[in-house]
Specification:
The protein is of the alpha/beta class. The protein has 2 domains: 228 residues, 3-Layer(aba) Sandwich (Aspartate Aminotransferase, domain 2); 120 residues, Aspartate Aminotransferase, domain 1 (Alpha-Beta Complex), CATH 3.90.1150. Helices cover 39% and strands 12% of the residues. It contains 11 helices and 12 strands. The strands form 3 sheets. It has a 7-stranded mixed beta sheet with strand order 1-9-8-5-4-2-3, sandwiched between helices. β2, α4 and β3 form a beta-alpha-beta unit. α3 packs parallel to α4 and α8 packs across α11. It is globular. The N terminus is likely disordered.
Length: 373
């Protein structure tokens, strides 16, 4: 048992310097190689990363991009989603999910969520209209949404499914990898993700060769060669330097996930007798714990208490997207999505990064028990 009187310990939410120290030799060798070759854009590492991601995820096509947001935007452009179309998505994600829908000129339609914070299939079914073009589930916290009923809804109404897998690389549902169940899967390589670059990065995966080819054109101005443009695209190429970093970290990803799952199991064990709600994992899912989110009516008090004890926590996310000023034109007010709104006042994210020790987790849990005592 940890000494609950210890107040000098400092536990940060993330520890990116520790990751660099663990990988320093590999990272510096790879960076030097890029500078020696001078292949900063479209270098050989980009193609190798796409091949390695294809093998890891077990899907035929991977297209690397410069952010997870661009992955969502170009996925929708490849599906010809635009003005007049609707895309169903949850209101409790990071703002990029909804912003990407707006960016292509479509209308985001929100569906409320389940106790585990993932989109409610029944709410999705109720939100379908003749203008609905796609469903965009968000695999929040590293736990995949309930994909079997969502795919059944999509088949019934002939809708595309765009998996926002930004927080769920390596997660599985019913034996299938995140991002590989829907029409397209979109991933982020942001520095805070489990598979993280040293800056912005992203990629799209699909089993559809035509969609993959179109996204490859769209990421490079719409060019089919040096001189000919078939449609207007953008610039969303993954830098070779980021590709090299991601290749290194893809090799380490199984270990990262294992350590995060170990931390989550310790939290669950040591906090089992507290009033915290910790969404249980289903037998058919493999949760990679991008974040470890608990729920409590005393969230703000608990966060303040832990901060005083040297424990850094955060909130993902305190204001639902439908209540953001940018979403005012959609016409939603308080009470529109009661589950997401209630959770927004209860959720608190504990540190779970792979560099935490068992003593760190025990200290955090001891402080939580002290708070509730």
């Amino acid at each position: 048992m940890m000494d609950a009187d210890i107040t000098t310990r400092r536990i940060g939410y993330v520890n990116l310097p520790a990751q660099f120290e663990e990988e320093r030799t590999e990272i510096m060798r790879a960076v030097e190689g890029v500078f020696r070759r001078g292949d900063f854009i479209g270098g050989e590492a980009v193609g190798k990363l796409e091949q390695e991601l294809t093998a890891y995820l077990g899907i035929p096509h991977v297209v690397t991009l410069n952010s997870g947001t661009d992955a969502l935007v170009l996925a929708m452009k490849a599906l010809d989603i635009g003005p007049g179309d609707e895309v169903i998505t949850p209101p409790n994600s990071f703002v990029a999910s909804t912003a990407s829908i707006v960016a292509v000129g479509a209308t985001p339609v929100f569906a409320d969520v389940l106790p585990d914070q993932n989109i409610d299939p029944a709410a999705v079914e109720a939100a379908v209209t003749p203008r609905t073009k796609a469903i965009m589930p968000v695999h929040l916290t590293g736990r995949m949404a309930d994909m079997n009923p969502l795919m059944a809804i999509a088949r019934k109404h002939k809708l595309a499914v765009i998996e926002d897998s930004a927080q769920a690389v390596g997660s599985t549902y019913d034996g299938r990898m995140s991002g590989t169940i829907g029409t397209l899967g979109c991933f982020s390589g942001h520095p805070l993700k489990n598979l993280n670059a040293a800056g912005d990065a992203g990629f799209v995966v699909t089993a559809d060769a035509a969609l993959a080819d179109r996204i490859k054109r769209l990421r490079n101005h719409g060019l089919i060669n040096r001189s000919d443009v078939t449609e207007w695209g953008t610039v969303s190429r993954l830098d070779t330097l980021q590709a090299e970093v991601l290749r290194i970290r893809l090799r380490h990803l199984p270990s990262v996930i294992e350590r995060r799952r170990r931390n989550a199991a310790q939290y669950r064990d040591e906090l089992a007798d507290t009033p915290l709600f910790m969404p249980p994992c289903r037998n058919i899912e493999f949760n990679t714990f991008h974040t470890f989110v608990v729920q409590t009516d005393r969230r703000d008090e608990l966060q303040k208490f832990l901060a005083a004890k040297g424990v850094e926590t955060t909130i993902h996310y305190p204001v639902p997207i439908h209540l953001q000023p940018a979403a005012a034109h959609l016409g939603h007010g308080k009470g529109s999505f009661p589950v997401a709104e209630r959770q927004a006042g209860q959720i608190l994210t504990f540190p779970i990064n792979q560099f935490l020790s068992t003593a760190d987790i025990s200290y955090i849990c001891a402080m939580v028990r002290e708070f509730f005592a």
